[in-house]
Amino acid sequence: VMGYAKKNTTRNSNGNMRKKQSEYASQLKEKQKVKFIYGVLEKQFHNAYLRAEARPGKTGENLLQIMECRLDNVVFRLGFAQTRRDARQLVSHAHFTVNIPSYQIKAGDVIEVRESSRSSAKFAKLTGPEAPVVALPSWLDREAGTLKGVVTKLPERSDIDYEVAEHLIVELYSK
Fold first, then answer.
1. DSSP bridge partners of 70
2. Which residue among 32, 116, 160, 173 is least enclosed by CB atoms within 10 Å?
3. Residue range 87-127, pLDDT digits in tens
């Protein structure tokens, strides 16, 4: 058969055995994962970490809350954009009544598509009968058929829907 030898070799017999991941490697992997999920650069992420550390409570949970409360992420969570990257561009192009992608939303904030942007094809298809159904996290609210979302409360650790061991990130940064 093409390219596959049947014989067993003794050379490098443990070659595909992986060494146990170092503590540093697993910490770095978690950090890179969260940075990638939210699409932020190291500097932005590190600054978020410093803010999280300054807040009372668990630094790791604070960090995830800070990331989750970025305006670009909230726009994505409200279903105004297909991806976080898309959301970030829409925010920085001032399609919303708040337009700083890293703006930290607070409970009670209303995020709305700017009047002048509503007619664009991108937003028009979010309100019609073919509008995609968005599974909103419990801390956000959006009236059906509108381009307006409300932050009902700040997200808690249990609201974060992906696997992350945030304590590893904290350990990495606190070295």
1. 104
2. 116
3. 999 998 888 887 677 788 899 888 888 888 888 878 877 87
Residue ranges of alpha helices (H) inside the chain are 23-38, 42-54, 59-68, 71-77, 84-92, 121-124, 166-173
Question: Cα 39 vs. chain centroid, distance in angstroms?
Answer: 7
Kindly report the length of the chain.
175
Q: 110 CB contacts (<8 Å, ≥6 apart)? A: 97, 148, 149, 150, 151
- Yes or no: say if 106 and 140 are a contact pair by the CB < 8 Å rule: no
Residue-wise pLDDT for 10-32, tens only, equals: 666 666 667 788 899 999 999 99
CB burial of residue 81 (10 Å; 0-12, 13-18, 19+): buried
Q: How far apart are CA 148 and CA 143, in angstroms?
A: 7
The answer to whether 26 touches 170, Cβ cutoff 8 Å, is no
State the residue for tokens 């970030």. Answer: 88
